[in-house]
Automatic annotation (TrEMBL):
The lineage of its organism: Eukaryota, Fungi, Dikarya, Basidiomycota, Agaricomycotina. One of its GO terms (molecular function) is N-acetylglucosaminylphosphatidylinositol deacetylase activity. One of its GO terms (cellular component) is endoplasmic reticulum. This is N-acetylglucosaminylphosphatidylinositol deacetylase. Residues 1-20 form the signal peptide. Keywords: Signal. It comes from Phanerochaete sordida. InterPro entries: GlcNAc_PI_deacetylase-related (IPR003737), LmbE-like_dom_sf (IPR024078). Belongs to the PIGL family.
Amino acid sequence: MFALASILILLLSLLAKVAYYPTSADAEIILGKDETARVLLLTAHPDDECLFFAPTVSSLLAQPSAPDASGRAVELYSLCLSTGDADGLGEVRAGELARSLDILGIPEGRRWLIDHPELPDNITLSWDASVIAETIKPYVLANKITTILTFDRGGISSHPNHASLPAGVSRLIASLAPTADRATRAFSLITVPLLHKYIGPLAVAIAKFDIAFAALLRRYGAAPPGRVPVFVAGVADYRTALNAMMQHRSQLVWFRWLYVSFSRYMWVNEWTEVRPPPAGSGSSLA
Ligand SMILES: *[C@@H]1O[C@H](CO)[C@@H](O)[C@H](O)[C@H]1NC(C)=O
């Protein structure tokens, strides 16, 4: 069993080395067709940006920030919906978030931290979808956001604050009338099963294998169904994420060290599109 696993790991890492395929084709799905993609990362607590979304943040910030020869640019914005005040550390954590975003590379003017009485950091509470939608709407409109990125209904860690976000985003995009040439789209970070969650760097090899395999199938006209946009971190990206996480000093308890060592979300992010609720479903949206 052990020998088999070792051979498998060896094979996968070899494949990852020889078959490096860039992931930009997958980024296209998220960035859409606008000349400048204005992407809003929507989180629930300070440190979510490091613990869950860092591979995406570093991939997007590596894109040109002004339209280059290819005519494409990406602007990345961050909106965090609570100060993380469950333990009364809201003010400390606000400062930690600012330092983390400095290191990741999202400047002041493109980042906001909300402290809303109906959106408290609380591990037992779900947030109301319409409060979320109303809270984020002004930021989306003022900055002409083209893509919103957030958690899925699994919330990665099952935190109900995280898990509430996609329903709020879905409600918002349903309420924004798309203009002829532009509609705001949204994507959720896919929650993987627990067993799959703590395979850390091995996830990189597997993700690159998947990407290479999909590219191979496409070359022979056998496009795999349902392409999933994927961002994979490099070692330098991982170090930046770790450095940003170090700014969240109040959160660095022993089990977070385990997390940052083994979590695949420090290395690989896979996304799925958030659809607006079906017309007429109204308040049945949880
Ligand atoms: C979280 O919400 C529950 C239920 O409303 C409440 O009893 C608890 O005190 C809250 N915890 C914090 C840290 O505010």
